[in-house]
């Protein structure tokens, strides 16, 4: 009983200190400031630049063109950041956006995203993670989870081999029952936010479906959904199709407003 009260009081103090909501209205736990996240983003981007060779010329101009079109429809704070874009020489079909205004695209991804609209689906998704402050939420959830496990260990007096075994079991439960599903919710949220961003920028949102079909064809076997930090390709496509009517309406409004990006693919 004392353990329950102790954990409840700790969880309440953390949640009261950092309650927020995502752009879709989902409750979020935020323990870090935007300035801290921006600094972490800058450090991570610098590390990428040190570890992977970068590519300039036409590929970089292409990615910059698509990114700039998406950035122009962001809210003021994110729009006014000095966005930096790099193309990295890597066969992995990967991309990222980081707090503080950083976008990285691997050359392997440029072979999967076959046109500007498919590339915009990727960039819109990655920038949506930044817009929804998912990095803050993930770090905060990890911190809160570790706090909870530490509190259980201290309050229950777990020591020795038996305590180590129990803590390992609790850690696995936290990983698969809290952290990974939470990450999947971020991915699904970024899919829908990114779909709307690309449509607002004037890119055809239907290309997002083609992109994930390409990703499915290019990828190997996926782990079970409950063990993955990402929804399955089929789940992503289902979610995008369910949101497509609104995205198409946004796309048509963008074209009427003159937002018709033209980014030649190298």
Number of domains: 1
Q: What's the total count of β strands?
A: 6
- Structure class: alpha+beta
The first-to-last residue Cα distance is: 65 Å
Sheet with the most strands, sense and barrel status? 4 strands, mixed
Mean of all residue-level pLDDT scores: 78
Strand order of the largest sheet: 3-4-6-5
- What is the string of SSEs from the N terminus onward? HEEHEHHEEEHHHHHHH
Estimated share of beta-strand residues:
5-15%
- What's the helical proportion of residues? 55-70%
Low-confidence stretches: 1-17, 169-182, 220-228
Helical stretch count?
A: 11
What gyration radius follows from the Cα positions, in whole Å? 20 Å
Instruction: Categorize the overall geometry.
Output: globular
Pfam families: Peptidase_M48
Family: Belongs to the peptidase M48 family.
Keywords: Hydrolase, Metal-binding, Metalloprotease, Protease, Signal, Zinc
Domain Peptidase M48: 61-242
């Amino acid at each position: 009983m004392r353990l329950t009260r102790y954990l409840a009081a700790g969880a309440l103090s953390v949640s009261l200190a950092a309650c927020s909501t995502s752009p879709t209205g989902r409750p979020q736990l935020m323990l870090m400031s935007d300035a801290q996240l921006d600094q972490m983003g800058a450090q991570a981007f610098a590390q990428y630049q040190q570890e992977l060779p970068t590519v300039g010329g036409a590929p970089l101009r292409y990615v910059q063109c698509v990114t700039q079109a998406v950035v122009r429809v962001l809210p003021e704070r994110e729009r006014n950041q000095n966005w930096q874009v790099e193309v990295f020489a890597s066969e992995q079909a990967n991309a990222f956006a980081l707090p503080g205004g950083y976008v990285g695209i691997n050359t392997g991804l440029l072979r999967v995203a076959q046109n500007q609209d498919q590339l915009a689906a990727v960039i819109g998704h990655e920038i949506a993670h930044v817009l929804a402050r998912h990095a803050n939420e993930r770090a905060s959830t990890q911190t809160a989870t570790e706090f909870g496990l530490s509190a259980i260990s201290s309050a229950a007096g777990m020591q020795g081999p038996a305590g180590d075994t129990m803590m390992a079991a609790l850690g696995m439960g936290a990983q698969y029952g809290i952290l990974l599903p939470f990450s999947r919710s971020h991915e699904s949220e970024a899919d829908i936010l990114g779909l709307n961003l690309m449509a607002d920028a004037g890119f055809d949102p239907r290309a997002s479906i083609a992109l994930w079909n390409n990703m499915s064809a290019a990828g190997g076997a996926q782990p079970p959904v409950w063990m993955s930090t990402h929804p399955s390709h089929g789940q992503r496509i289902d979610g995008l199709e369910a949101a497509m009517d609104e995205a198409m309406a946004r796309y048509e409004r963008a074209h009427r407003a003159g937002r018709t990006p033209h980014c030649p693919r190298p």
